[in-house]
Write a structure and sequence with these properties.
The chain is mainly alpha-helical. The protein contains 11 helices and no strands.
Length: 192
């Protein structure tokens, strides 16, 4: 039951935030009953993501910070740690704390490279690009978004993170390059 609930949580963006939150809380409760610390941390990660998607950023950061502390002190799961740092970065961008978001991106890149996880590398570079995009630094943003896109040639992997194409389209639109903006927006739609 626990693994099935965590698999449902992995649907992430395709779930309504309230639904994801309920699944994450249910998974956490089950994990606690089973004394499964890794699954409890995964549930906390998903709870933080759901809270972020609901716009409850302080609550999301509180859960993420608690999860990060557990991962750094009593669990050895560098990829889950990288995911929680990326999650914190999402919160920081939404709170206009761009310096912190960019630092989270760099931390995630380091962990993702060490653990040979190209999707996490793409997410981290996209996070950094998003922070620069929000700061109005279009050139820096597009450089990071294109770095994310060029991290891998695995199109199936890139389709898992279609938001990258939307960010690139937004960048190009802001730069007045409408043909490029349309091209990347269409790619994002095709992936969704």
């Amino acid at each position: 039951r626990l693994q099935a609930t965590l698999l449902l949580c992995e649907q992430g963006y395709s779930l309504h935030p309230a639904t994801l939150l309920e699944y994450a809380k249910s998974a956490y409760t089950i994990a606690e009953e089973l004394n499964d610390k890794v699954s409890a941390a995964k549930a906390m990660y998903n709870e933080s993501a759901a809270l972020t998607n609901k716009g409850l950023l302080d609550s999301a950061l509180a859960v993420a910070n608690k999860c990060e502390d557990i991962l750094k002190t009593s669990l050895n799961d560098p990829l889950l740690l990288a995911n929680i740092l990326n999650q914190k970065g999402r919160c920081f961008v939404r709170k206009n704390q761009y310096k912190e978001a960019i630092q989270m991106g760099y931390d995630v890149i380091e962990l993702a490279e060490k653990n040979k996880d190209p999707l996490l590398q793409v997410k981290a570079k996209t996070l950094i690009g998003w922070a620069y995009l929000e700061m109005g630094q279009q050139q820096e943003a597009i450089q990071w978004h294109l770095k994310a896109l060029n991290t891998t040639s695995d199109t199936m992997l890139l389709q898992k993170y279609a938001i990258l194409y939307g960010n690139i389209a937004t960048n190009y639109n802001n730069l007045g390059k409408l043909d490029s903006a349309f091209y990347y927006m269409q790619k994002g739609i095709d992936c969704a």
